[in-house]
Structures are given as structure tokens and as C-alpha cells.
Design brief:
The protein has 16 helices and 19 strands. The termini are far apart. Strands 1, 2, 3, 4, 5 and 6 form a 6-stranded antiparallel beta sheet that branches. Strands 7, 8, 9, 10, 11 and 12 form a 6-stranded antiparallel beta sheet that branches. A 5-stranded mixed beta sheet has the order 14-16-17-19-18. The radius of gyration is 45 Å and the shape is rod-shaped. It folds into 4 domains: about 130 residues, Beta-Lactamase (2-Layer Sandwich); about 120 residues, Beta-Lactamase, CATH 3.30.450; about 80 residues, Orthogonal Bundle (Helix Hairpins), CATH 1.10.287; about 150 residues, Heat Shock Protein 90 (2-Layer Sandwich), CATH 3.30.565.10. By secondary structure, the chain is of the alpha+beta class.
């Protein structure tokens, strides 16, 4: 009899201990039998679901489940009791519970088989994950609205989250990315080393740029590569540590940087070339003057003694020397453009009048008709501007058609804050395949026997227009004439 009393006391103590543990749990606890009836609940269950325990104990557990899931739930109960083990319920699926007021909320459930005198029961530990879901949704919205491509990657290299920008950048749908390895977005030549870099990051996770000092590339679905910058941010989740990669397409920036670099290099080379041209041509002048002086002395002292053949040789030497002198002067003029330029507010009409006065002799000799439209007043480099007009007008007269009076029209109009000038003629014209070539130094389109010059005049024009932050172009047709167009910015001092 005493043994029975002790056993009963021990049983009651065990029951009390169990009850104390369950009641003190921060989670909702529901004890369910094989028939799916609720045998016990704790205080947290009452608070979470809005029922008093008398309303639940003895009732079906399905009353805590949304109607869309309640019909299939008894089958899951039977399956659990066939092989009762400790596990999470509905692994991989989103679970929802229903309160007394019929409102729903997301949950996580842990299942534990409990052996009692009444048989095996299942203890369901229920956690309300509404706040976590809200936080996850806020995180998802932030990632989704980010202007950069975003990838959430776990420690094994699997992609768990992507945003719209990532889809656009790499050309994949997110269903093609999520669950796959990150290496699919990395060019093959870098894939071998990437797992090591990832492991190194997770050993000491911290916010930083990826691959500092190195050029990084991504691989699109179509096989093309894109140059990128990547920022790495460690993220702690219930599924473990992850890294949020923020990816920026820097292709255009790199193109601009390379273009700028080339421009700087070109400008440096041009400056060096101009300096060389100046020094070379300047230093050549002295010996050339010596040659010319001695030629003059030789002609004065010995010309009567020379036969016709020797005189011919001497004449050729003299002409060659004169051509060299002219060429050196042209090189000096080219190298000096912009060297000591001064910006002044000038009447372009006045500059043109002065130019026409300076070249009156050649215009009169050719019979040229020159029509000048309204000209603006601008901040320009006056000396260079004068040279620009003179070169273009002189060219128009030089390259006139045989037995045709040259007609030259000069006009200007303001377009988008810049002034566009045009110099139009009715001369021999220029073939379209020569349009680009003519603005480079020493580019001749006609033989020296036909037309004088060294192919420097238009190179000077381009350099002067560049000095004014403008552009120069040509529109021409063989046998019908040419129009040179150039723009001049209204520069400020």
C-alpha cells in the first residue's frame, strides 16, 4: 500500500515538474493525442491564440489552423505518429496559424513525441514569427529597391536572394539564380580561386570592397562579360551567416576613364610634338639663313662664270632652300598657335574686314566675290581667329575652278549657346573619303604642281577651333564646291 502511495506521489511530482516547465516556456505549447485532440496548452498558447484553455482542451487542433490547411492536417498527424521523431513541422513550407478572431499569422513549429501513461502524444512548440517576417519583408523591399544589383549568398556559395537589378545586369530570371552557385556569374578564368576568397571572407566577415586593387568581371547569361565593382556586407540570419553583395556595372566609367587617359596622353604627346617642332624649326632657321646668304654671295661672285647646266643646278638649290624656309616658317606658326593667346571681346565682322583688307591683292587678282553675313561679337583669341578666317578664305580662292570666278559666302548663326560659322565656296570640291584627313598636318590632296602649299593651313584651322572649344567639319562635292563649318563657344575669361 505504501509503495502505491509513493508511486502516486512520484507521478504527481513528475506531472507538476512538467507543468512548471511547460508553463514557463516563452513559446506556445500544445499537447496533441493520436486523434488530433488537444490534451494540454500553456499560458502562452492562450495569449497567442486568444482562447482560454477550456475552449481548446478536448477540441480538435484544426481549430487553430486556417481552413485552407485544416482538411489535410489530420493526414499529417497520422504520418507523424507512425514514425514519431523530434523535427520541425512543414520543413521548407510557410506555416500559418489562426487566432480565435480568425486572423492569421506566420509560425514555426517544433514537434516532439512525448510518452505518457495515456500513450504517445506530440508536443508542438509554436513560435509567432510575424515580426521576423516583417523584418524579412523590409529587408527584401530594401534589397529590391536598391539601385545596384544585389545578391544574398550563403557560406557555401549558394544564391538565396536576388533583386531586379541583378536580373537586368546578368540577364537571368531570379528563378534561374536562386539555389545555384555564385560561380555561374563569374568568368571561368576566375572561378577556381573564388571559393577560397569566399571562405576567407566568412572566416573574418566585415563590410568591405571585394578584390581591392584588382579588376573584377561578371559573366552574363549570353556569355558576355561586364566590369564590376562589388561591396560585401556580412548578414546574420537564422539560416547562418551570409554575405550581401552589392554589384555596380562600371563598364561606362571604365570607358570614360580610358578615353580620358588617352586624351591626356594625346595632349601630352601633342605638346611634346609642338615643342619639338618649335625647337627644330627655330634651330633650323639659323643654318638655313647661312645657306641662303652663301647662295646669294655665290650667285653675285660666280654666276657669270657658270655654264647653263650649273646655273640650272644652282636655281634648283635656291628654290629648294626657299621651300624649306617656307615650310619651317609654317611649322613655327603651327607650333605657336595658342602659345601666347589672349582672350578678347571682339567684333567678328571687324576681324573679317581686316582679313579681307590684308588679302585684297589675291581677291582682286582672282576676281573673287565675297559675301559676309551678320557677324557676332564674342570672346575669342583675336590673332588666331584672324588666322582662321584668312586660311579658309585663302583656301577657297586657291582651290577655285578654272575659268570660274570664285564666290565665297561667310555666315554665322547661334545654335544651343554656340556660334556656328560657315565658309562656302564654288570651287573644285573635296572627295568625301578625304574629309577627316584634310585636318591633319602635311596632308595634301593635290600635287604641288597644281596648287602651292604644304598641307598645314587646315591643320592650323582645326587647332584654332580646338582652342575655342569648338568643332570643325567639311561638307563638299567634287566639282560643285565646299562648305567649312566650325563652332565657337562664347568663352569666358
Amino acid at each position: 500500500m505504501s509503495d502505491t502511495i509513493v508511486e502516486g506521489h512520484s507521478s504527481k511530482l513528475t506531472e507538476l515538474t512538467f507543468q512548471l516547465i511547460v508553463e514557463s516556456s516563452p513559446n506556445a505549447i500544445v499537447l496533441v493525442n493520436k486523434e488530433g485532440k488537444i490534451a494540454y496548452i500553456n499560458n502562452q498558447t492562450e495569449k497567442l491564440f486568444g482562447y482560454v484553455r477550456s475552449e481548446l482542451i478536448g477540441g480538435k487542433v484544426e481549430q487553430l489552423i486556417p481552413e485552407r490547411f485544416s482538411k489535410s492536417h489530420p493526414g499529417f498527424v497520422n504520418m507523424f505518429f507512425q514514425t514519431p521523431t523530434v523535427r520541425a513541422m512543414g520543413a521548407g513550407r510557410e506555416l500559418f496559424a489562426m487566432r480565435k478572431d480568425r486572423s492569421e499569422f506566420p509560425i514555426e513549429i517544433g514537434l516532439n513525441p512525448v510518452v505518457t501513461v495515456d500513450g504517445t502524444l506530440v508536443l508542438a512548440s509554436i513560435i509567432d514569427i510575424s515580426e521576423r517576417k516583417k523584418a524579412e519583408e523590409r529587408f527584401r523591399l530594401v534589397v529590391e529597391s536598391a539601385p545596384n544589383a544585389m545578391l544574398l549568398v550563403n557560406s557555401t556559395g549558394l544564391i538565396t536572394l536576388v533583386n531586379n537589378q541583378a536580373e537586368r545586369l546578368f540577364g537571368y530570371a531570379r528563378t534561374e539564380l536562386i539555389g545555384n552557385r555564385l560561380e555561374m556569374l563569374i568568368p571561368e578564368r576566375f572561378r577556381t580561386h573564388h571559393p577560397h576568397h569566399r571562405d576567407t571572407f566568412f572566416q573574418k566577415p566585415q563590410t568591405r570592397a571585394m578584390g581591392m586593387g584588382r579588376d573584377l568581371f561578371g559573366l552574363r547569361k549570353d556569355g558576355s562579360e561586364v566590369q564590376v565593382e562589388i561591396g560585401l556586407n556580412p548578414i546574420e540570419t537564422i539560416e547562418g551567416n551570409m554575405v550581401l553583395a552589392s554589384i555596380i556595372d562600371i563598364t561606362e566609367r571604365k570607358i570614360q576613364e580610358n578615353t580620358l587617359k588617352k586624351q591626356v596622353e594625346l595632349e601630352t604627346k601633342n605638346q611634346e610634338l609642338e615643342q619639338f617642332a618649335y625647337i627644330a624649326s627655330h634651330d633650323l632657321q639659323a643654318p638655313l639663313r647661312t645657306v641662303l646668304n652663301y647662295m646669294q654671295v655665290f650667285e653675285e661672285d660666280y654666276l657669270p662664270q657658270l655654264d647653263e647646266k650649273a646655273r640650272g643646278y644652282l636655281d634648283r638649290v635656291g628654290k629648294a632652300t626657299e621651300r624649306m624656309s617656307t615650310l619651317i616658317k609654317a611649322l613655327l606658326d603651327f607650333s605657336r598657335i595658342g602659345g601666347d593667346a589672349r582672350l578678347n571681346y571682339c567684333d567678328c565682322g571687324k576681324i573679317l574686314s581686316d582679313v579681307l583688307a590684308d588679302i585684297e591683292e589675291i581677291t582682286t587678282k582672282s576676281g573673287a566675290i565675297i559675301e559676309v553675313g551678320e557677324m557676332p561679337s564674342l570672346n575669342v583669341y583675336e590673332v588666331e581667329m584672324r588666322q582662321l578666317f584668312q586660311n579658309l578664305i585663302s583656301n577657297a580662292i586657291k582651290f577655285k575652278k578654272k575659268d570660274t570666278i570664285p564666290v565665297i559666302k561667310i555666315n554665322a548663326e547661334e545654335i544651343n549657346g554656340k556660334w556656328k560659322f560657315s565658309v562656302n565656296d564654288n570651287g573644285i570640291g573635296i572627295a568625301s573619303n578625304h574629309y577627316e584627313r584634310i585636318f591633319y598636318i602635311f596632308q595634301r590632296l593635290n600635287s604641288a604642281d597644281q596648287y602651292e602649299g604644304y598641307g598645314i593651313g587646315l591643320a592650323n584651322c582645326k587647332k584654332i577651333v580646338d582652342l575655342h572649344k569648338g568643332e570643325i567639319s567639311v561638307d563638299s562635292e567634287l566639282g560643285k564646291g565646299t562648305t567649312f563649318n566650325f563652332t565657337i563657344s562664347n568663352l569666358t575669361k
